[in-house]
Design goal:
single chain, 6 helices, 56% helix
């Protein structure tokens, strides 16, 4: 089921119904997905169970490649580079980290002062921030109301 005609059939089965006559794999998939008519389903019997793990995985269901190995190797490479630079400078890693604590104090003070200055900002800016807040949240609500694209869609 990896050639182009099979992919076209999976995307639009009704338009490519003739493909079933030439492909055994697609016929088997179609047969496994069919449910019996309601007259065949009795009170005690259930339709055949579909094994979801055997179905092809769509790109939005996580079929894309996840580069965790690359991410971990880059992070460890940056850590090794930091160790080499600290060694070349003649200092330890802990001294380099603690000497930059003043920078963190400055950032903390900047955040605190910004929070104190917000009520004293011009009314037009406050109104703009309020409107932007509602616009972004309205957009998120609209996006969340869209129908899903999954196996049950």
């Amino acid at each position: 089921m990896t050639d182009e005609r099979c992919q076209q059939y999976l995307e639009d089965p009704e338009a490519n119904a003739a493909h079933l006559e030439e492909c055994e794999a697609c016929r088997a998939l179609e047969a496994s997905l069919e449910t019996p008519p309601e007259s065949d389903v009795e009170a005690g019997s259930l339709p055949s169970v579909i094994d979801v793990d055997k179905l092809p995985v769509a790109p939005w269901e996580g079929a894309s490649h996840r580069p965790w190995g690359l991410i971990l190797s880059l992070a460890s490479g940056i850590f090794v580079l930091a160790l080499v630079l600290c060694f070349a400078a003649g200092t330890s890693m802990t001294r380099a980290v603690t000497s930059s604590a003043g920078t963190f104090d400055m950032l903390r003070d900047l955040v605190r002062l910004t929070g104190d200055a917000a009520p004293h900002a011009p009314k037009v800016w406050q109104l703009g921030v309020l409107l932007l807040f509602f616009a972004v949240n309205g957009l998120l609500v609209l996006l969340l109301r869209r129908p899903t694209r999954g196996i049950d869609a």
